[in-house]
Design goal:
The chain has about 500 residues and is mainly beta. About 10% of the residues lie in helices and about 35% in strands. A four-stranded antiparallel sheet has the order 1-2-3-4, with no helix packed on it. Strands 5-6-7-8 form a four-stranded antiparallel sheet.
């Protein structure tokens, strides 16, 4: 919440700006991120936080051809991740195997938002073509679609717990508005309310336990919250939280992380324009210190209900729920995400001449990269990792070949390159010392009031008037050494002009 150190540990493995992040609801140590480098990365955060910058993800999910602006975990299925990119594609992944489960290309333009329903059997999306769509995520079929908001700016939509859809957007006059819709009548909103004329896109954050919706506009300094009820007008304005600083982004703590002893019903992490992260706690004032059953019904647990394989086969299940009475206690057995990539039939083919370089080893079986960045195929000689065989040496060890070069030759090349790098570094240091010496010489002359006149040097006062002054006395202190080690002196020619010299001090 304050300024961090320059060497603070970060998660830094993307080659472009990170556009969206999402914590896994079933593993508090796993986070997914999408970036402009078109790659989705899944990270394993160690217990207690980062001690050093994390650059190696658990798995890279590569499919999108343009930047990835949206990542979203499935609410009840383990390791199911949705991503959407500027290539107008929605991809559903099985993170546990790193494979694509479903690819949806039913959007003609940029996808603004996506949201699973309560059990993850349906998906609602908003698009730049101003339409809202309900999709079957297993088949990619569009179940229903309608015009969301008439304005051309970004819209967002979320599924509520009991099946209704809440949207935010703009009307033709660029006024911000929100609506409540039924999935079977998307084109006929139950409620459509205009809010104000601000330009910032509104992001709805939903609490399914209390049916509260928090509206946070980008660039706003307020957070409005509403309650959704079955009675008219269905969406009730409650109040707003006001701050002097405008917000750039905001995130919501899961209910498991709220403090039940202080009746905290929501906690937000708000990134201000000042660059600081502000923690905002929403509490209900109650004098009793007992557990408040009405404020804390059973909430989402950190355990998955079904596996990714069960979900893609057609099984639906509601998320697991837990009670917060007595505080949250994690029931998770393991916090390590294991990725088991399925074998590729191409790995079993013998490498062709001129193809990928071959690394033969006794314990191989997976693919990596060579020193120059080209692919390296690891063959274990048993037929499981590909064609080829190992070459046992006389002492029973295995000989390692990289690109046709033996391990010994590879070590000699490495030593040679290291020696060349040391020589280059010495040259750079020498030039750096020379530049510093010249800079110090110029500064010393400037301090004595010398400036350049007619290709030589003269006192600054004479240079400004155009006259030649009388010769200046020799300097009492010596300038720094020149690049060849000899003291660099300043000598005069008797006419007020000076030049560089390498004479000894008594000769000067």
């Amino acid at each position: 919440v304050g300024r961090i150190a320059a060497d603070h540990a970060l998660v830094g493995g993307h080659k472009g700006p990170v556009l969206d992040i999402a914590w896994c609801p079933h593993n508090d140590n796993v986070i997914a991120s999408g970036s402009e480098d078109c790659v989705v990365k899944v990270w394993q955060i160690p217990d207690g936080g980062l001690s050093r910058t994390l650059t190696e993800p658990v798995v890279d999910l590569v499919y999108h051809q343009r930047r990835v602006g949206l990542v979203l975990w499935h609410p009840s299925a383990l390791n199911v991740l949705l991503t959407a990119g500027s290539d107008n594609l929605i991809v559903v992944w099985n993170v546990g195997t790193g494979e694509v489960l479903m690819r949806m290309d039913c959007h003609p333009d940029t996808i603004y938002s996506a949201c699973w329903n309560w059990d993850g059997s349906q998906l609602v999306t908003t698009c730049k073509d101003k339409k809202i769509r309900i999709l079957n995520p297993r088949t990619g079929e569009v179940v229903n679609e309608a015009l969301a908001h008439e304005g051309s700016k970004a819209t967002r939509a979320i599924f509520l717990r009991h099946g209704l859809i809440f949207t935010t957007g703009f009307n033709r006059s660029s006024e911000r508005q929100y609506s409540l819709r039924a999935p079977d009548a998307l084109g006929d909103p139950i409620v459509m309310v205009d809010l104000d004329t601000s330009n910032g896109v509104m992001f709805p954050l939903y609490d399914p336990d209390t049916n509260l919706i928090y509206l946070c506009g980008k660039g706003d300094s307020v957070i409005r919250y509403f309650e959704v009820t079955p009675e008219h007008p269905y969406v009730h304005y409650i109040s707003q939280f006001q701050t002097p600083d405008s917000q750039r982004a905001i995130g919501m703590m899961p209910k498991r992380g709220c403090d039940v002893s202080t009746c905290e019903v929501a906690r937000f992490y708000r990134l201000n324009n000042s660059g600081l992260c502000q923690v905002i706690s929403m509490t209900v004032p109650r004098k009793s210190e007992l557990f408040q059953e009405d404020l804390y019904p059973d909430t989402l647990a950190d355990e998955a209900s079904i596996s990714a394989e069960d979900w893609i086969s057609g099984v639906d299940a509601d998320p697991q729920l837990i009670s917060l009475k007595g505080g949250y206690v994690s029931q998770a057995q393991s916090t390590t995400l294991t990725v088991t990539k399925k074998s590729n039939v191409l790995d079993k083919m013998a490498p062709k001449s001129g193809g990928p370089k071959t690394l033969s080893a006794s314990t191989g079986g997976s693919a990596g990269a060579s020193a120059n960045g080209s692919p390296v195929t690891v063959n274990n000689g048993t037929g499981a990792g590909g064609g080829g065989s190992t070459s046992p040496a006389n002492n029973g060890t295995q000989q390692i070949m990289i690109g046709g070069v033996s391990e010994q030759q590879f070590g000699e090349l490495r030593t040679k390159f290291e020696e060349e790098f040391r020589k280059l570094k010495a040259i750079i240091v020498k030039h750096e010392n020379r530049i510093r010496s010249l800079e110090a010489t110029v500064k010393a002359m400037t301090d004595r009031g010398l400036t350049e006149v007619d290709g030589g040097l003269a006192p600054a006062a004479a240079a400004s008037t155009g006259t030649s002054p009388s010769p200046a006395p020799a300097p009492s202190s010596l300038p720094p050494a020149s690049d060849d080690g000899a003291p660099a002196q300043i000598s005069g020619d008797g006419g007020g002009h000076y030049r560089n010299s390498t004479l000894e001090p008594d000769e000067v």
